Amino acid sequence: MRTGRAGAGWVWQTAPMLLLLACTSGKVAPDPVTDSVETETLDGSDTGDPETLPGGTCDPGADPVYVDEGEEASFVVGCTGGGSADSFSMPDLPPGATFDGRLFTWTPGLSDAGHLELVVDSSGEYSDAGVVDVWVADAWSDPDNVEVDPATYEEELGLPVLHLEVPPDTNDTTDVATTLWYRGESYDIELKYRGAASAYYPKRSYTVSFPSDHEFDDGDWDFENRRKITVTSLFDDNSYLRQWLCYQLWSAADPKRHDVQSMFAVVYVNGAYVGLYVVTDHIDGEYWEDHGYDEDGSLYKAVDHRANFYSTYNGYAKSSWHDGYEKQEGDPEDFSDIDELVQFVAESPDDTFSDGIASRVVVDEIADWWILVRWTEADDSGGKNAYLYRDATTGLFHHAPWDFNHSLGQTWQTEREGADTNYDFYWSNNLFYRLIVDPVWGPVMADRMREQLDGVYAPDAVLARIDDVQDVIEPSAERDWEKWQDSYRSYGGWYWRTDWTTHDEEVAYLRAWVEARGGYMDTWFP
Q1: CA 136 to mean position of chain CA atoms
Q2: For labelling, which of 122, 336, 424, 486 has a CA lying 20 to 30 Å from the CA of 237?
């Protein structure tokens, strides 16, 4: 458990707690104090004896409360366990707070941002203690706001906070030396802006490099030991879920394979609140080394649609077999391995392709790439926006996915895209096409699709992932939407849209799309 000092000198605890009694800020829940609940013994027989329940009988508490500085936080304390209490007390109230034995009320000031765990004691035959979480977020829009301390403001509304110092000379090509604070630790980092179309968003994205002896790590999110991360703006997705969900689906398809780690964080830049971000692996040589491969192996990024495994693009011959690829790792002048692969896919006779493709690529990774983009309708990531890494030991190319703002019912310009959209990716990826129509590999691809449709991509399974993380990010997503909704709706990249949604409406749209997509895909692969 980490502790720090925030605001007016209160100690804020940063370990999240699970509490049970429903209550929202500013609303008093029904009085639970006098509700005595009959309990059961561990063998199932009825008894009124509260001693039969392990861990206490009252478990006093209330649901977490989420407010901004300057907003009233209030809740009614009650027993969340199976017993009852004669009275309640709160021994350590923050300055200005009141507690009348049931109702807690407090309006935090402009220097009180943080996470407060309020101890609640119950008295009666079986006294007990519990904790209520009060999350107070920085009042970023208040002209009198007091900046948070990056050394102590570790979490906001249940999510970790990244504090970035962004120098004025920060750019999208050259790393600049600066500082990042995370979970109470200071990191000496290198930073640059990232993104193609997203480079013009008012809410910027970043690539962050860490020292080899002080890597980025967050055990709460199973995000482990990375020397480089991407901190991606979700400005173009007011569900805030698409990028994270696609990486989760890829990683879940084969947990033994190299995953792409992803988590959510709130970002502050130069002391000012920016909003909700998704943090992901950066795909580079160090990423592959972390998964047991050679850091200096050949790594290519498909940066445009010429990376299509054909000899032509839009009816014209390409100038080289590696058109559309940038070399990220390995000899920058040597494209011979990717040239050989693309030429083989583009020109080899059917029998030669069928016999030779498995000695060049890890076929199940290509299959899962195809399934991911096909199911999520990630039209912009089926050829371009992908990484290919060649393992020098085996000679095999591996795949790692990238960039999913175009997916799950919207285009990269946020336009709506129906769940019955049927983009087969043949135009953008000849490797997909040749595998699917091949008499040997086609059945393998189809069987893999059916297996995934019944597992990772079953609508109930996808919806469960959405629900689980939505419960965690919802307060931060609403806060981000409050800050950025006007900029989102007026942004020139999608000026023609009139079918705007709120954050809640977009999550509902995404859920409905997922349900419909599952049924649609079943018609193709029954």
Answers
A1: 22
A2: 424
Mean pLDDT along residues 200-207: 95
> Cα 477 from chain centroid?
12
Q: Which residues contact 306 (CB under 8 A, 6 or more apart)?
A: 313, 318, 323, 324
Quote the CA–CA distance of 407 and 239 in Å, as a whole number. Answer: 12
For residue 314 the two structure tokens come to 């839009």
Looking only at the bridges linking them, the beta strands covering 325-329 and 298-302 are: antiparallel
The residues that bridge with 11 in the sheet, in sequence order, are 5
CA dist 64 and 246 (Å) reads 29
- The number of residues making up the chain comes to 526
Helices 363-376 and 441-453 meet at what angle, rounded to 10? 50
What is the rounded average pLDDT for all residues in the chain? 89
Q: State the amino acid at position 201 in one-letter form.
A: Y
Q: How far apart are the first and last CA of the chain?
A: 49
User: How many whole angstroms separate alpha carbon 445 and alpha carbon 436?
Assistant: 6
Q: At 356, which helix (H) or strand (E)? A: helix 350-356
Instruction: Tell me the three state secondary structure of residue 282.
Output: coil
Q: Using CB atoms within 10 A of its CB, is residue 205 exposed (0-12), middle (13-18) or buried (19+)? A: buried
Tokens of 477: 């997503």
Amino acid 40: pLDDT: 29
